[in-house]
Amino acid sequence: MDKFKERWGEWLEGLKNTYRLVVMNDDTFEEVGSYRLTRLNVYIMVSSIFVVLVVLVTMIIAFTSLKEYIPGYGDVNLKGKSKQLEEQVYEVEKELLAREAYIKTIQKVLTGGVDTTNYAAEASSEMDYDTAEFNVEPIAEDYQLRTEMEREAMQSLDNSNFVTPQVDNSLEQLYFTTPVRGAIVSDEFQPDQDHFGVDLLGSTGSTIYATLGGVIIMSDYTFETGYVIGIQHSNNIISFYKHNSKLLKKVGDKVQAGQAIAIIGNTGELSEGPHLHFEVWHNSKPINPREFLVF
Question: What is the CATH number of domain 119-291?
Answer without folding.
Answer: 2.70.70.10
